[in-house]
């Protein structure tokens, strides 16, 4: 039985606290289902769960197993997609509801499991086309008709010189399901160890970031690591290389728990190197991407800084002389 029993998992929940409704997120990066905490991480979700804003919460909706879709355009407002609805069924057909004899308000459709509004209509349609093999051509035509209706009814807001939305282009671009990039651990020599290098250290990054690092290496000096990475890119996952006199896996997948950003300006501090030499460091600005990664049973905080105006001063320099740090 699949562990993914629900069609929608959200990164936030809405709770009633202090006399108001508030958004909350889990501390460990796990997702919510119907505002209840689960043990599922974003990294666990299959690719057919598509990111978006659903029912006022950011999250991921399944686009696999969709059996019927019904697009209902709103022609009472001058908005495109925002007030339109896409009804989704994961079993059976969506049908028109019978008109009640009382004339009271009623749901005009039956047989659906969920409703999507706004730009997520495009995302769910594309996911249904790819992962449910659903024919969306008739709905694409409806989207084009809604566009023409807006152009004709509201030419001041949606005339050709003011608004140009290409429906066909939306469905021809490469599909992005909104999942975060996958992260890996790469094991390398620990060059912070004095004298003889005899220990290893794990670094973390996306495959693209690690590839940029590999490309920067001396291809002759680090030929084993470079060749192992090339083999990994070709599909051989269990590649190894030698680190600290031992054979180690080159890359191992890890789980991204959360990501945050921070910036600092005009900072200085003293740095003592492994030979107890003191340097005064300073920087103008630093932008930091801060990640919480789960590597096996360990939780690792990783910081990827972009530093501007990075320089240092030591007793060997004149009092007002600051030496730029290489490549900073």
Report on the architecture of this protein.
The chain has 328 residues and is of the alpha+beta class. It has 3 domains: 163 residues, no CATH class; 72 residues, no CATH class; 69 residues, no CATH class. It is built from 6 helices and 21 strands. The strands form 7 sheets. Strands 13, 14, 17, 18, 19, 20 and 21 form a 7-stranded antiparallel β-sheet that branches. The protein is elongated, with a radius of gyration of 27 Å. The mean pLDDT is 90.
Distance between the termini: 52 Å
Largest sheet data: 7 strands, antiparallel
| Separate helix tally | 6
Helix content: 10-25%
What are the secondary-structure elements, in order, as H or E?
EEEEEEEEEEEEHHHHEEHHEEEEEEE
Mean pLDDT: 90
| Share in β-strands | 35-45%
Quick synopsis:
With 328 residues, the protein is of the alpha+beta class.
Please specify the SSE layout and strand pairing:
Layout: E1 8-10, E2 13-17, E3 20-24, E4 30-33, E5 36-41, E6 49-54, E7 57-62, E8 68-72, E9 85-89, E10 95-96, E11 109-110, E12 114-117, H1 120-131, H2 137-153, H3 155-158, H4 167-170, E13 183-189, E14 200-206, H5 207-216, H6 223-233, E15 240-243, E16 246-249, E17 251-272, E18 278-295, E19 298-308, E20 311-313, E21 323-324
Antiparallel strand pairs: 1-7, 2-3, 4-5, 6-7, 8-9, 9-12, 10-11, 13-14, 13-17, 15-16, 17-18, 18-19, 18-20, 20-21
